[in-house]
Automatic annotation (TrEMBL), chain A:
It comes from Bucorvus abyssinicus (Northern ground-hornbill). GO terms for biological process: Notch signaling pathway; protein processing. Component of the gamma-secretase complex. This is Gamma-secretase subunit APH-1. GO terms for cellular component: gamma-secretase complex. The keyword S-adenosyl-L-methionine does not apply.
From TrEMBL, chain B:
Homodimer. Residues 326-339 have a biased composition (Basic and acidic residues). GO terms for biological process: amyloid-beta formation; calcium ion homeostasis; membrane protein ectodomain proteolysis; Notch signaling pathway; protein processing. GO terms for molecular function: aspartic endopeptidase activity, intramembrane cleaving. Pfam families: Presenilin. Keywords: Endoplasmic reticulum, Golgi apparatus, Hydrolase, Membrane, Notch signaling pathway, Protease, Transmembrane, Transmembrane helix. It comes from Bucorvus abyssinicus (Northern ground-hornbill). GO terms for cellular component: endoplasmic reticulum membrane; gamma-secretase complex; Golgi membrane. Its EC number is 3.4.23.-. InterPro entries: Peptidase_A22A, Preselin/SPP, Presenilin_C. This is Presenilin. The chain crosses the membrane at residues 94-112, 145-166, 173-195, 207-227, 234-250, 256-275, 399-419, 425-444. The PAL motif is required for normal active site conformation. Belongs to the peptidase A22A family.
Length: 233, 458
């Protein structure tokens, strides 16, 4: 349920960005295709920056709420971990951004039609699907890294996240030259994923432990018995 | 209305009742009680508080409520806990309300997108007599404003009528009204809906089967809503009724009138619930005064109150029989009232004589639920449905309105947890919904369309 406030923040950022784009389009010359394309690029860049700004704003909001909750609870710790919040935040951003990008395409794909009949690429749908998937994953990873960077005040990480978002968005401008856009985007996704994994505290050993599913009960049993013995006296 | 188990105004305007959020914790009404009954009132208050999701142990609240000589220390200590529990239960209630609202909207949007009938213009209701087929923009605007005024005044009149009926204890009349309206909804509108769906998918059904299906559906619905039934089934029926009502509104309200009506009704809701002389507020207070639950046919409740070992079975019986006041307005009123009524409904479902039940603390804390008026369901769905129907076939607008409405609901529930009294559920959500509808339709859609045509992603 906490996905919705985050999605709301993303929507507001999108709204502001489209407002800026709309105003700029109306103020400019409609006929000039080059200018329109340039304005589109400008609009996309503004939107990316606004999204990151709203992510930051949401982080601040969460920190405040977290502190409030921490003061309310008995032991002074907040009941929600920051990592979880970061993950959910990134996921929510990713879901809403992905859904907004792809739902109209999905709705159109049901109806009768031929893809690429006017000379566009016939792989439009499948590449859209892959791009959306990459974007959702990327948003999730960015969320984790972003929150962690804000928490530890590593601003170069922040800058790197914003730069990679801009880069990804920029790469999509190379569509339909799919080799140049899809490939690098997936490489970026993988790298960001690894980075987020490391940031969240994962490591190679953790993965191995998780995969081998070793029961941890033994050590605990020992501790209990160790505790009980002096009591018997 | 969102209520925490308060009986909200049920009869009157279905809209009114439906559209306010009430917290279970009604503020104490000391003016109606004097000395001897103060404790009872306090307990009732506590009980009501317990019914709310947000209050903590009734004992504490009862103490808090009644303490003249009170126990201020305990109060402050319990306040913290109360806040924490408020937040904890607040989150649970948010989820409990999100699901039905989402389901209702999904049903409405799915129907709008697939069944052509509900987007065709086949005339208007008598409550909106002015047509919008005029050539000039100004004339159209004027017509829609006039339509709104007529509709809102009808709603006000109905609400006041309902409050008067309730005040003068004409329970039989109210009962009959509610039953008539829910009858109409469950049978007639379901028949029309089923007919249209079958037509859309080109499925043939013979009359005997149709009769059997509709009869069973309607009869079980009547029993569930007005009498007893499993909670889930009752909730499902309420959702379906709200969806049917919303579909009727979407079909028969002309475009601009619909938007203006949505705006006007949220303003009206705000006033009716919060103003001291507002009809809804009076209804709530009267219900609290008499310690009666509000009609079950008008509210959606997310949880049922159990009264294990209640010492007053007769009150319980009386309560449950009263609760099913569907606002059975004739014709259109039926629609409205039913929707209103529905909101009221859930509350009464719980056989709850709200007597202090100190032994049931834990049980009550589990079972406390939030009540949301059915009118709220209906108008949320109308907004999202209209967005789906008229937004140039765009799903982004629908989604944006959906998120906006849910966020508004979230905020309203937060305010409910803070203020602990009946609150109107419509204003915040509808405002957000309207803002997002118009801005997404006009600003975001061209932006996203242009981006998508170049396959750009942001």
């Amino acid at each position: 349920v906490s996905l919705f406030p985050r999605a709301f923040f993303w929507l507001v950022s999108l709204l502001l960005a489209s407002l800026i784009w709309f105003v700029s389009v109306h103020l400019s010359d409609r006929e000039d295709a080059k200018l329109q394309y340039g304005l589109l690029i400008f609009g996309a860049a503004v939107s990316v920056l606004l999204q990151e700004a709203f992510r930051f704003a949401y982080f601040k909001l969460l920190k405040k709420a977290d502190e409030g909750l921490a003061t309310l609870s008995e032991d002074g710790r907040s009941p929600i971990s920051l990592r979880q919040m970061a993950y959910v935040s990134g996921l929510a951003f990713g879901i809403i951004s992905g859904v907004f990008s792809v739902i109209n395409i999905l709705a159109d794909s049901i109806g009768p039609g031929i893809v690429g009949i006017h000379g566009d690429s016939p792989y439009y749908f499948i590449t859209s699907a892959f791009l959306t998937m990459a974007l959702v994953l990327l948003h999730t990873f960015w969320g984790v890294i972003f929150f962690d960077a804000c928490e530890k005040r590593r601003y170069w990480c922040l800058g790197l996240v914003v730069a990679s978002h801009l880069l990804t968005s920029g790469l999509t401008f190379l569509n339909p030259w799919y080799e140049a856009s899809l490939g690098p985007i997936f490489i970026i996704t993988l790298c960001t994923g690894l980075w987020a994994f490391v940031t969240a505290g994962g490591s190679f050993r953790n993965v191995l432990k998780c995969l081998s599913c070793k029961p941890e009960a033994d050590s605990r049993v020992m501790m209990y018995s160790a505790l009980q013995v002096p009591f018997e006296d | 209305m969102i209520t925490f188990m308060n009986n909200s105004d049920s009869e009157e305007e279905p809209c009114n009742e439906r559209t306010s959020l009430m917290s279970a914790e009604s503020p104490p009404v000391p003016s109606y009680q004097d000395g001897l009954q103060a404790s009872e009132a306090g307990e009732a208050q506590a009980h009501r508080k317990r019914r709310t999701g947000s209050s903590r142990s009734p004992n504490n609240t009862a103490d808090g409520e009644m303490s003249d000589a009170g126990v201020p220390v305990r109060e402050s200590a319990s306040e913290n806990e109360e806040e924490e529990l408020t937040l904890k239960y607040g989150a649970k209630h948010v989820i409990m309300l999100f699901v039905p609202v989402t389901l209702c909207m999904i049903v409405v949007v799915a129907t709008i997108k697939s069944v052509r009938f509900y987007t065709e213009k086949n005339g208007q209701l008598i409550y909106t007599p002015f047509s919008e087929d005029t050539p000039s923009v100004g004339q159209r605007l004027l017509n829609s404003v006039l339509n709104t005024i007529i509709m809102i005044s009808v709603i006000v009149v109905m609400t006041v009528f309902l409050v008067l009926l309730y005040k003068y204890r004409c329970y039989k009349f109210i009962h009959g009204w509610l039953i008539l309206s829910s009858l109409m909804l469950l049978f007639l509108f379901t028949y029309i809906y089923l007919g249209e769906v079958l037509k859309t998918y080109n499925v043939a059904m013979d009359y005997p089967t149709l009769f059997l299906v509709i009869w069973n559906f309607g009869a079980v619905g009547m029993i569930c809503i007005h009498w007893k039934g499993p909670l889930q089934l009752q909730q499902a029926y309420l959702i379906m009724i709200s969806a049917l009502m919303a579909l009727v509104f979407i079909k028969y309200l002309p475009e601009w009138s619909a938007w203006v009506i949505l705006g006007a009704i949220s303003i009206y809701d705000l006033m009716a619930v919060l103003c001291p002389k507002g009809p809804l507020r009076m209804l709530v207070e009267t219900a609290q005064e008499r310690n009666e639950p509000i009609f079950p046919a008008l509210i959606y409740s997310s949880a049922m109150m159990w009264t294990v070992g209640m010492a007053k079975p007769d009150t319980a019986a009386r309560g449950s029989s009263q609760q099913t006041r569907d606002a059975a307005e004739d014709g259109r009123e039926d629609h409205r009232s039913s929707s209103h009524a529905d909101s009221q409904m859930s509350e009464t479902r719980s056989p709850v004589p709200t007597r202090p039940i100190t032994s049931l603390d834990e049980l009550e804390e589990e079972e406390r639920g939030v009540k949301l008026g059915l009118g709220d369901f209906i108008f949320y769905s109308v907004l999202v449905g209209k967005a789906a129907a008229t937004a140039s076939g765009d799903w982004n607008t629908t989604l944006a309105c959906f998120v906006a409405i849910l966020i508004g609901l979230c905020l309203t529930l937060l305010l409910l947890a803070v203020f602990k009294k009946a609150l109107p559920a419509l204003p915040i959500s509808i405002t957000f919904g309207l803002v997002f509808y118009f801005s997404t339709d006009n600003l975001v859609r061209p932006f996203m369309d242009t981006l998508a045509s170049h396959q750009l992603y942001i």
